[in-house]
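Today's session is about reading a structure prediction critically. Students often jump straight to the picture, but the first step is always the sequence itself: look for stretches that repeat, for charged clusters, for runs of hydrophobic residues. Only then move on to the predicted structure, which in these notes is written as discrete structure tokens rather than atom positions. Here is the chain we will use throughout the hour.
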Amino acid sequence: MRSGPGAQAPAARDVPRALAVRVLLPATLLWGVIVGVGLLLADVPENGLNRTLLDLREPALNATTMVISEAASTLVVIATAVVVSGIVWWQTRQWWFAAVPLIALALEAIVFLTSSAVIGRDRPDVDQLDHAPPTASFPSGHTGAATAVYVSFALMATRIRNGTVRVTVIVVCALVPVGVAVARVYRGMHHPTDVIAGLAVGVTCALIAWTWWPTPTRATTDAPTAGASAAR
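Below is the predicted structure for this chain, in token form.
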């Protein structure tokens, strides 16, 4: 996927409409889908995998999953998104391109916080290795945030010219959300469907952010020229 924000900066007057039509509208539809699915699953018993993983716990895995889980904590994810966006802006001087991870993370946070409050699903009925935040279990906020940010990074990495570096960055960024999802289930913090929903929310938010200011089509770019030619 090589599309995404174009090289031309958006005019200030166009930004509010772009955010409303290309960001908030699809995010509202996503929210509706997540709430609908979440309400259907809210009272469905789903502790089998969590109890199986409970029997597999050992100190080494506990420590590894703790590190992975903490990498998706609120402060770490925000700091990571801000730092990477700052570096990208410094390198490209394109704020509308550098803002993609921040838009994705903001969208994910809004969808997650509001939908989990409506759904209110309980966390798995197993011993939990982390302190449970004051939010419901569905969808997984850690998984959603990590997915939104790292999928955004992967999309931005498609513009890296060096093929080896490009593929490496994309693969690493794709593996991080999967690792977070597995860690959250292993640590007893979420049901499997919670992290699946988190992955779906994160990917969708990243794609929405990636297309918030699309590259102009050739027809659009050529329109002024064609008009000028006709006027002659």
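Discussion point for the tutorial: Residues 219-232 have pLDDT under 50 and may be disordered.
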